Amino acid sequence: MKPKILLIYTGGTIGMIKDPETGALRSFDFTQLLFHIPELKQLDCQIETTSFEEPIDSSDMDLGYWKILGDIINTSYDDYHGFVVLHGSDTMSHTGSALSFMFENLTKPIVLTGSQLPIGDLRTDAKENLITSIQLASEWDNNEPIIREVCVYFEYQLYRANRTAKMNAEHFEAFSSPNYPPLAISGVHLNIDRQLLWQGGFDRVSLAKLKPLELSPLKMIYRPDMDARVVVLKLFPGITEQVVKSICHIDGLRGIILETYGSGNAPTCKWFIEALKNALLKNIRIVNVTQCRGGSVDMGKYETSVALKKLGMVSGYDITTEAALAKMMYLLSYMPETGDFKKYFETSLRGEISV
Ligand code: ASP
């Protein structure tokens, strides 16, 4: 039996070709995929395709589209051995992070990929990205998929999706994963580092302690609802009281991802700490995430983060802002009112933080 892969086209540059007459980029008919990439026939797997009704630029990605994508995977979960999602690169890390939380106890790979140049361009990076993503999604061992998590494949590297960020708008090497090594590297051989793959073990042990999030080690659980009442507040020298207070007073706000400096440092002025304190008193959750791409929050290391630590602020450790947002949206939706948000957030649920 050959592995069966579902290829899902959501939109983005990868699915575009140049109109031979006008020279303009347009989406190509996805049902004609094999015509444009006949090489796919050589792969040792069965490929079926589906597409968003109206493919989108990933800048238009939102919670509604996440649910459409999640539903496609969830409803066909038992019929395929792996999923490859073609997605614009701009928000690929956000979608990858969201999917990683939406699917608990994943037993199959979900690989997101895209490209910097359209598939119809002579110098395209799309073909390699697509072909290798499909190969990785169909890697088997004793009839079991080897990869059981949500990944991003781009320019010869496979990453854990919730560890990635888009860092270059031009280079083929568009993504980085500064706090977790690539899960696989494509060279002459496809080298998967099995030690680095998500096994779910830590997740289960941690969650067992952190009841009552439902726990079922064998069955995949799909949780598609995300709470959008969150905001990212990025600190910068000169940020005003008015800006911080206005954000903390947004009607119905439930969570703030506070992008701090370095190892989690922030201004020490009274109005700033007071504004955060009042927000916490209103039950708004605040997570301290560093603006640095690499490294971790370590509250209390410097004088400038002692006050935040004293407030009992949640540490994002080395999580990316993209993953922190998705995790917050997920926890705000599914964590029971009485649950300890800090405890849940500071636990690695899908390998998104090193703790
Ligand atoms: N703007 C495009 C998108 O994210 C860029 C890309 O596909 O890489 O949909």
From TrEMBL:
<dbReference type="GO" id="GO:0004067">
    <property type="term" value="F:asparaginase activity"/>
</dbReference>
<dbReference type="Pfam" id="PF17763">
    <property type="entry name" value="Asparaginase_C"/>
</dbReference>
<dbReference type="InterPro" id="IPR027474">
    <property type="entry name" value="L-asparaginase_N"/>
</dbReference>
<feature type="domain" description="Asparaginase/glutaminase C-terminal">
    <location>
        <begin position="229"/>
        <end position="345"/>
    </location>
</feature>
<feature type="active site" description="O-isoaspartyl threonine intermediate">
    <location>
        <position position="13"/>
    </location>
</feature>
<keyword id="KW-0378">Hydrolase</keyword>
<dbReference type="InterPro" id="IPR036152">
    <property type="entry name" value="Asp/glu_Ase-like_sf"/>
</dbReference>
<dbReference type="InterPro" id="IPR006033">
    <property type="entry name" value="AsnA_fam"/>
</dbReference>
<dbReference type="InterPro" id="IPR037152">
    <property type="entry name" value="L-asparaginase_N_sf"/>
</dbReference>
<dbReference type="InterPro" id="IPR027473">
    <property type="entry name" value="L-asparaginase_C"/>
</dbReference>
<feature type="active site">
    <location>
        <position position="13"/>
    </location>
</feature>
<dbReference type="GO" id="GO:0009066">
    <property type="term" value="P:aspartate family amino acid metabolic process"/>
</dbReference>
<dbReference type="InterPro" id="IPR020827">
    <property type="entry name" value="Asparaginase/glutaminase_AS1"/>
</dbReference>
<dbReference type="InterPro" id="IPR040919">
    <property type="entry name" value="Asparaginase_C"/>
</dbReference>
<dbReference type="InterPro" id="IPR006034">
    <property type="entry name" value="Asparaginase/glutaminase-like"/>
</dbReference>
<dbReference type="InterPro" id="IPR041725">
    <property type="entry name" value="L-asparaginase_I"/>
</dbReference>
<comment type="similarity">
    <text>Belongs to the asparaginase 1 family.</text>
</comment>
<dbReference type="Pfam" id="PF00710">
    <property type="entry name" value="Asparaginase"/>
</dbReference>
<protein>
    <recommendedName>
        <fullName>asparaginase</fullName>
        <ecNumber>3.5.1.1</ecNumber>
    </recommendedName>
</protein>
<feature type="domain" description="L-asparaginase N-terminal">
    <location>
        <begin position="4"/>
        <end position="195"/>
    </location>
</feature>
